[in-house]
């Protein structure tokens, strides 16, 4: 890993440092497929960069991390360029001071890879309307994380207000394995669903989101209920033909699928680290319409 | 570059069309694109949502048979294709293939969340094992060979469904036990009578195993369930035996339930040939006799026959590799665009190409074969073929084979396809090289372009999967000198490092019942029709020419291509 520090610098100096470092490493044309812009604060920086670097192993990318520092200091841009053999991409940490904190886009746009997708990720606090944000406007995909918000439930319930196609939230990504399991259970039609309930730890934004999705797709009321967790613990659906179709998971790793007339079956359903969630997000760079309609439904439903 | 982006559309649709959804009225229509699935299928999408709206308006929910799964939506690309509840019965679990590829692939599928709850694995072999012993064998091979990280919960899910049935293939009792065991698994694990039988055994055992499956009525699917049989190459050793072999399986299983594995077709790079050709505009205009000079398809191995003497002797390089892998690659490179990526359309186009393949008029000039002799290979002194253990000293089996084929159609007339394969060659590499004609006029002096070769597009199948384009570029300096440079796309660089192993993809396709990547019997027979005359010619012409291990084949192979004024690519 080569690290290069630039203080009081400009985007063009960073850009030429990147080119120079890549030549030095003997890899002038790396197959990077996207630019990932991470907007976070100094405290969240380490974990976010780590997750992004790990995701970059699957999706070689240039990771631009924007860290806003004290707006009262004189205007200044500090950069840390990292490039290494462990990761196929490049990481640039940008620290913005003074008035520059309001103009992050001016630093980022010259550093974006040419003619490849741009993804913005807010691992912590996210702007209310990501697509209207200065950085978000540069991106085709905008990833937020309701769980990191002070009030996660309010955050996910409010996502529909600023939604534009291209937005997604990691609270939704965390549901993929659950949704996949539910969908495959429905490959053998269980009959009509009368009602249902989703259980999870208090304040977990994925819980109402799963309930909203199920409720919309199944055209049945699906309630939200609290459990001790961790995370999502159970989804129960009451069937018109009698009995329940349920998936429950108490140890955050192995779930049990039960349905009427069938033996209970266990299936791996582990909670995933952020890097994996991010890698899933980067796999599809088109808009996620299903997420869009789930948050619209969530806004309408009384569960929120 | 397409492939991974495409999975989603295919995913949702294929799942809707899974056979265990009774008459899924979902979007399983002709637009079931396989690889090009990313095409925004407007009609299809609106149809589904309309259907949903209609159902909602009428107060209908998913209770009626034939209504598509309400939780699946073609737009929901995150949800993967997951196999329905089923049992995989593996014959030959003690073999190398099972240990190194199949068992790890099953774990990897589980780790990616692609195995259904209740999925069960039954091993069948002549071993005095209990379920736990087989589970232990599986555990070890997973630990050693799986591509994805080991996770306890995934292992527990799989281990719960592991069963073992000891016995010999000729033992009626053992198969009766197997039938009972499967019935019991249906009850305890809810697998619904869906069984896939994987015959990872030498072809000589096919008749007896298939017969046993018939006798115990395991080959017959009850209403609403499926039975599939998976067989591995070799699919016979000539047209006659291929037909006999097929007669055995087709007497018991219908063609649509027979999955012939050519693991090359499960490789990402091979599937990417379709994406490269049919998802881009860049290459199609020049993909014909107007621009292509010739095509070289190579599969070179650096290893010898190892422990496969018993199988290899009498079979040889052409039957082992050209008949299946190389002719399949040729078909994918040369075929016209299929109307869609479903199995029927793909196979139809591949069959057309194989049917148009023409052999050289003089087989002694248009083919070459060789047998490796002792030599130095990669710094090691290695034995010659005839000195290998288990090989008779007068064996005339070839370990190197090269043929010059033509495809007699409007697109390819006059463009030779050179196929070569061999053991103990310089190094291990498989690639398809499309070599283009020279520019019709070079406005440079001849000395400027002296070292300029022909443009080429190379699909590297293994190792280091990717694509290379070779073209001429000016050498920096005051003089005008043009030299070859290459532009490179490497899979590992632009896509995830742990792309699924070929067997993972193929096993999943078997469990889902998605056949495009499996060759049809017709393709197998057409390939034998191409190869049989060559084999006959060779059988009548004495010993193959020797080539020292570690070199690139016998002189006759070089003579064959230089006669056309061309050279083999130096690999």
Structure in words:
Chain A has 304 residues and is of the alpha/beta class. Chain A has helices spanning 11-24, 42-58, 104-108, 152-158, 170-173, 176-185, 206-218, 274-283, 289-300, and strands spanning 2-6, 34-40, 61-68, 76-83, 90-97, 118-121, 141-144, 167-169, 193-201, 221-227, 232-239, 244-248, 254-258, 265-268. In chain A, strand 9, helix 7 (206-218) and strand 10 form a beta-alpha-beta unit. In chain A, helix 2 (42-58) crosses helix 8 and helix 7 (206-218) crosses helix 9 (289-300). The longest helix of chain A has 17 residues, at 42-58. The radius of gyration of chain A is 22 Å and the shape is elongated. In chain B, 36% of the residues lie in helices and 19% in strands. Chain B has 17 helices and 18 strands. Chain B has helices at 3-16, 42-57, 96-111, 131-145, 152-160, 172-189, 206-215, 239-250, 268-278, 309-312, 316-334, 343-356, 363-366, 491-494, 502-512, 521-539, 555-562, and strands at 87-91, 120-125, 162-166, 195-199, 227-232, 258-261, 292-300, 357-358, 367-373, 375-377, 380-382, 400-407, 416-422, 429-436, 456-462, 466-474, 482-490, 545-548. In chain B, strands 7, 8, 9, 12, 13, 14, 15, 16, 17 and 18 form a ten-stranded mixed β-sheet that branches. Chain B has a six-stranded parallel β-sheet with strand order 3-2-1-4-5-6, sandwiched between helices. Chains A and B meet through helix 6, helix 7, strand 14 and helix 8 of A and helix 1, helix 5, helix 6, strand 17 and helix 14 of B.
The helix/strand order of chain A is EHEHEEEHEEHEHHEHEEEEEHH
How many strands of chain B? 18
Strand order of the largest sheet of chain A: 1-4-5-3-2-6-7-8
Q: Main sheet of chain A, how many strands, which sense, barrel?
A: 8 strands, mixed
The structure class of chain A reads: alpha/beta
Given the structure, what is the number of helices of chain A?
Answer: 9
Task: Tell me the span between the first and last alpha carbons of chain A.
Answer: 46 Å
> Total strand count of chain A, please?
14
User: In one word, what is the shape of chain A?
Assistant: elongated
Mean pLDDT of chain B, rounded to whole units? 84
Low-confidence stretches of chain B: 1-66
- Strand count, sense and closure of the main sheet of chain B? 10 strands, mixed
The average pLDDT value of chain A, as a whole number, equals 89
Large-scale geometry of chain B: globular
State the end-to-end CA separation of chain B. 25 Å
Oligomeric category: heterodimer
Number of helices of chain B: 17
Give the amount of beta strand of chain B, in percent. Answer: 15-25%
Beta-strand content estimate of chain A = 25-35%
């Amino acid at each position: 890993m080569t690290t290069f520090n630039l203080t009081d610098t400009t985007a063009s100096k960073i850009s030429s440092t990147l080119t120079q470092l890549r030549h030095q490493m003997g890899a002038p044309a790396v197959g990077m497929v996207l630019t990932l812009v991470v907007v976070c604060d100094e405290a969240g920086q380490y974990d976010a960069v780590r997750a992004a670097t790990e995701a970059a192993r699957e999706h070689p990318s240039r990771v631009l991390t924007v860290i806003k520092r004290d707006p009262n200091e004189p205007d200044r841009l500090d950069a840390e360029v990292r490039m290494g053999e462990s990761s196929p991409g490049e990481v640039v940490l940008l620290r913005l001071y003074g008035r520059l904190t309001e103009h992050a886009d001016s630093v980022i746009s010259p550093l974006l890879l040419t003619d490849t997708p741009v993804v913005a990720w807010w691992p912590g606090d996210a702007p209310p309307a990501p697509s209207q944000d200065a950085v978000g406007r540069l991106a085709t995909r905008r990833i937020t994380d309701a769980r990191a918000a002070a009030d996660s439930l309010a955050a996910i319930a409010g996502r529909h207000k600023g939604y534009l196609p291209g937005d997604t939230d990691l609270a939704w990504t965390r549901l993929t394995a659950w949704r996949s399991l539910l969908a495959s259970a429905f490959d053998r039609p269980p009959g009509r669903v009368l009602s249902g309930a989703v259980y999870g730890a208090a304040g977990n934004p994925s819980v109402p989101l799963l309930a909203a999705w199920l409720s919309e797709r199944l055209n049945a009321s699906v309630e939200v209920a609290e459990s001790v967790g961790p995370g999502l613990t159970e989804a129960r659906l009451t069937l018109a033909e009698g009995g329940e179709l349920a998936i429950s998971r108490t140890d955050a790793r192995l779930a049990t699928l039960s349905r009427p007339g069938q033996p209970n079956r266990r299936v791996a359903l582990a909670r995933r680290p952020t890097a994996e969630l991010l890698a899933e997000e980067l796999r599809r760079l088109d808009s996620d319409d299903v997420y869009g309609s789930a948050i619209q439904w969530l806004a309408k439903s009384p569960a929120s | 570059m397409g492939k991974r982006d495409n999975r989603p559309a295919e995913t949702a649709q294929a799942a809707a069309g899974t056979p265990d959804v009774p008459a899924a009225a979902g979007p399983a229509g002709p637009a079931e694109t396989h690889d090009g699935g990313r095409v925004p299928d407007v009609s299809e999408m609106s149809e589904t949502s309309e259907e949903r709206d209609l159902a909602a308006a009428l107060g209908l929910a998913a209770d009626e048979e034939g209504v598509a799964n309400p939780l699946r939506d073609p737009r929901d690309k995150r949800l993967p294709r997951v196999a329905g509840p089923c049992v995989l019965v593996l014959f030959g679990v003690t073999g190398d293939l099972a240990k190194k590829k199949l068992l790890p692939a099953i774990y990897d599928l589980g780790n990616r969340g692609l195995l259904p709850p209740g999925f069960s694995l039954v091993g069948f072999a002549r071993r005095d094992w209990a379920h736990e012993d087989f589970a232990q064998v599986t555990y070890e091979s997973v630990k050693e060979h799986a591509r994805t990280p080991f996770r306890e919960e995934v292992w527990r899910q799989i281990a719960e469904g592991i069963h073992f049935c000891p016995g010999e293939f000729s033992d009626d009792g053992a198969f009766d036990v197997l039938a009972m065991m499967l019935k019991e698994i249906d009850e305890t694990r809810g697998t619904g009578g869906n069984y896939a039988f994987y015959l990872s055994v030498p072809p000589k055992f096919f008749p007896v195993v298939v017969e046993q499956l018939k006798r115990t009525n395991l080959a017959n699917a009850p209403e609403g369930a499926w039975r599939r049989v998976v067989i591995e190459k070799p699919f016979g050793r000539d047209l006659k035996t291929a037909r006999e072999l097929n007669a055995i399986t087709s007497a018991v299983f219908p063609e649509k339930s027979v999955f012939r594995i050519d693991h090359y077709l499960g490789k990402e790079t091979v599937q990417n040939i379709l994406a490269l050709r049919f998802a881009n505009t860049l290459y199609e205009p020049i993909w014909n006799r107007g621009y292509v000079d010739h095509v070289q398809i190579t599969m070179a191995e650096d290893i010898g026959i190892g422990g496969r003497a018993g199988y290899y002797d009498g079979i040889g390089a052409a039957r082992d590799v050209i008949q299946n892998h190389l002719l399949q690659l040729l078909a994918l490179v040369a075929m016209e665009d299929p109307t869609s990526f479903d199995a029927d359309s793909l196979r139809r186009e591949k069959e057309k190409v194989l049917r148009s393949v023409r052999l050289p008029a003089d087989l002694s000039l248009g083919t070459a074969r060789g047998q490796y002799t002792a030599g130095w290979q990669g710094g090691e002194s290695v034995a010659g073929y005839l000195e290998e253990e288990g090989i008779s000293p007068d064996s005339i089996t070839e370990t190197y084979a090269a043929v010059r084929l033509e495809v007699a159609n409007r697109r390819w007339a006059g463009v030779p396809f050179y196929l070569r394969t061999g053991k103990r060659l310089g190094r291990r590499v498989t690639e398809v090289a499309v070599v283009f004609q020279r520019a019709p006029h070079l406005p440079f002096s001849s000395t400027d372009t002296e070292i300029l070769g022909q443009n080429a597009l190379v699909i590297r199948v293994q190792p280091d999967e990717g694509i290379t384009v070779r073209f001429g570029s000016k050498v920096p300096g005051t003089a005008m000198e043009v030299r070859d440079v290459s532009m490179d796309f490497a899979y590992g660089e632009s896509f995830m490092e742990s792309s699924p192993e070929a067997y993972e993809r193929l096993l999943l396709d078997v469990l889902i019942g998605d056949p495009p990547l499996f060759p049809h019997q017709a393709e197998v027979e057409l390939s034998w029709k191409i190869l049989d005359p060559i084999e006959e010619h060779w059988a009548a012409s004495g010993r193959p020419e020797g080539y020292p291990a570690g070199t690139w084949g016998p002189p006759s192979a070089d003579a064959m291509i230089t006669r056309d004024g061309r050279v083999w690519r130096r690999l």
